[in-house]
């Protein structure tokens, strides 16, 4: 059972999470102060372009070592920018990992991802596991104590007034155009969005080109775009490849909008903060759980271990061993008053309790029938399907929020994820672009702010930073082919990772 509590969760002393709260209130000028310039991902530097399954594409841009890189404010060793992207209309977003706390390189993680198409290294980690929580199939599978930051795919109830990925057509004369969204607050780079009378605000966002339809005809065209009141009619905001066509529409031409009814739910990407909110309960006792499969165990609370944990657990001050009976009921088999090092039984759980939680754990008795909840709280009430840990935000609601003055300007391999309301998701890695045979002590790459600017140029309205340096790795699977390294040659060194993110087939 997943428990979602729509309220703020307590602050945690993890640097990457604290930084998330620091960037929200700064001005755009303050955030950009001290940033390096960011070269365009242009055709001149495009060296790889591949079509993968389910509409996923992979592209690579290479800035060559020497003058080509330095003239573009990049590392003299060179920079390759690797991007895999797809849309949640056609894909899903997944988490790849083996048992906790086991690590494995991205090639092996990707191969065992049944529906994976492209993959990117995930969270920061140490010998105990990831630094932040993991959620899979709508429940939390791993978390240290306290609040941590995650990024992933959510299931969201659609409020038509606040926007959704729409389907339908705009017919002008005898030509039809596919609608990409309805009432969206943050449309993507290539989009045709319809705003109706039920839009949450009076004035729509400004498009590259704006068209007003009234009484079945083109009433007004704004070739440079405009923020328009919905009272004037049906507003069409166009960005990207169709903007020029719409800018040339003649007034009074017949026009009609046909939309498919809004879905009840849609999947979206989201960044949030989450905390464990699980429990183990008998008829007379309830023990709150404040971490899941976290090797060291909670210092002052209770940690729940299940079959995802492959090692022997710590002893804790008190240990509960829980296993299923023949009917599937969960039974407390043993209460170890002095703690106990043990592995998790098949289908069962181990609870390791410390501090005041140990006193509560001692109230359970062998033979108690119990229920176990691996619930969580999220700061915004988001219902995650799959998510794992992230670093600080780079872009939020279309605004650059990374504060360059607070961070290193070193060129390093970097990894990031970007997305927008249209459902487009970008996995991005920057690297040297060549195998330096340096056993992971990599150089080259980019700054974090350059990653943010590149993602914004591709159409991302939100983005977060991931682990980087020697962890940065991207893999792709071409149709009817094996997995291949995409950020560097296959000969490059692989770091074993605690988890990874994947773009996956949803069929």
Briefly say what this structure is:
This protein is mainly beta and 507 residues long. The protein contains seven helices and 37 strands.
Task: Give a description of the structure.
It is a single chain. With 507 residues, the chain is mostly beta strands. The protein folds into three domains: 15-151 and 384-439 and 466-502, no CATH class; 160-263, Jelly Rolls (Sandwich), CATH 2.60.120; 278-374, no CATH class. 9% of the residues lie in helices and 37% in strands. The protein contains seven helices and 37 strands. The strands form eight sheets. The chain has an eight-stranded antiparallel beta sheet. An eight-stranded mixed beta sheet has the order 21-20-27-25-24-26-23-22. Strand 24 and strand 25 (330-336) form a beta hairpin. It is globular and about 80 Å long.
Fold topology:
Blueprint (H helix, E strand, L loop, with lengths): L14 H8 L5 H5 L13 E6 L5 E7 L3 H4 L8 E9 L3 E6 L9 H6 L4 E6 L3 E2 L2 E2 L3 E3 L2 E4 L5 E10 L10 E5 L2 E4 L2 E2 L8 E5 L13 E6 L2 E6 L11 E6 L3 H5 L7 E5 L5 E12 L1 E4 L4 E4 L1 E2 L9 E4 L12 E7 L5 E7 L12 E5 L1 H7 L7 E5 L2 E3 L5 E6 L3 E4 L2 E2 L13 E6 L4 E8 L16 H11 L3 E4 L8 E4 L5 E3 L14 E6 L2
Parallel strand pairs: 13-14, 22-23
Antiparallel strand pairs: 1-2, 2-3, 3-33, 4-37, 5-35, 5-37, 6-7, 8-9, 10-19, 10-29, 11-12, 11-18, 14-17, 15-16, 15-17, 19-28, 20-21, 20-27, 23-26, 24-25, 24-26, 25-27, 30-31, 30-34, 32-33, 32-34, 35-36
């Amino acid at each position: 059972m997943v428990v979602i509590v729509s309220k703020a969760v307590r602050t945690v002393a993890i640097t990457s999470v604290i930084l998330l709260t620091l960037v929200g209130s700064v001005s755009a000028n303050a955030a950009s102060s001290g940033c390096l310039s960011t070269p365009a991902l242009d055709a001149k530097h495009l060296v790889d372009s591949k079509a993968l399954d389910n509409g996923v594409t992979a592209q690579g841009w290479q800035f060559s070592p020497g003058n080509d890189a330095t003239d573009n404010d990049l590392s003299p060793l060179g920079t390759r920018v690797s991007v895999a992207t797809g849309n949640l209309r056609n894909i899903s977003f997944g988490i790849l990992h083996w048992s906790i706390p086991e690590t494995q390189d991205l090639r092996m993680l990707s191969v065992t991802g049944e529906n994976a198409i492209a993959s990117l290294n995930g969270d920061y980690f140490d010998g105990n596991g990831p630094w932040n929580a993991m959620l899979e199939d709508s429940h939390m599978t791993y978390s240290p104590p306290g609040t941590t930051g995650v990024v992933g795919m959510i299931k969201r109830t659609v409020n038509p007034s606040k926007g959704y990925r729409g389907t339908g057509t705009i017919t002008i004369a005898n030509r039809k155009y596919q609608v990409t969204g309805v009432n969206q607050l943050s449309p993507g780079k290539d989009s045709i969005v319809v705003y109706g009378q039920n839009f949450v605000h009076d004035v729509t966002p400004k498009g590259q080109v704006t068209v007003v339809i009234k009484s079945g005809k083109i009433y007004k065209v704004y070739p440079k775009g405009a923020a328009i009141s919905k009272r004037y009619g049906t507003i069409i905001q166009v960005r990207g490849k169709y903007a020029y066509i719409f800018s040339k529409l003649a007034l009074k031409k017949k026009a009609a909008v046909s939309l498919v009814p809004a879905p009840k739910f849609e999947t979206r990407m989201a960044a949030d903060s989450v905390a464990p909110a699980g429990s183990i309960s008998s008829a007379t006792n309830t023990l709150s759980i404040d971490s899941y499969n976290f090797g060291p165990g909670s210092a002052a609370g209770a940690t729940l271990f299940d079959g995802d944990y492959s090692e022997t657990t710590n002893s804790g001050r008190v240990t509960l061993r829980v296993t299923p009976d023949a009917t599937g009921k969960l039974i407390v088999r043993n209460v170890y008053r002095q703690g106990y090092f043990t592995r998790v039984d098949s289908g069962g759980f181990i609870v390791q309790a410390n501090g005041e939680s140990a006193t509560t754990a001692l109230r359970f008795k062998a033979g108690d029938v119990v229920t176990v909840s691996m619930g969580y709280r999220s700061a915004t009430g988001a219902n995650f399907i799959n998510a794992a840990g992230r670093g600080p935000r780079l872009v939020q609601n279309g605004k650059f929020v990374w504060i360059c003055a607070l961070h290193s300007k070193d060129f390093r391999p970097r990894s990031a994820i970007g997305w927008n309301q249209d459902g487009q998701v970008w996995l991005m890695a920057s690297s040297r672009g060549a195998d330096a045979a340096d056993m992971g002590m990599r150089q080259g790459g980019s700054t974090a702010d350059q990653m943010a600017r590149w993602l914004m140029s591709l159409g991302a309205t939100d983005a977060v930073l991931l682990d980087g340096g020697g962890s940065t790795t991207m893999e792709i699977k071409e149709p009817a082919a094996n997995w291949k390294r995409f950020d560097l040659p296959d000969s490059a060194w692989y770091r074993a990772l605690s988890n990874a993110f994947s773009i996956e087939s949803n069929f």
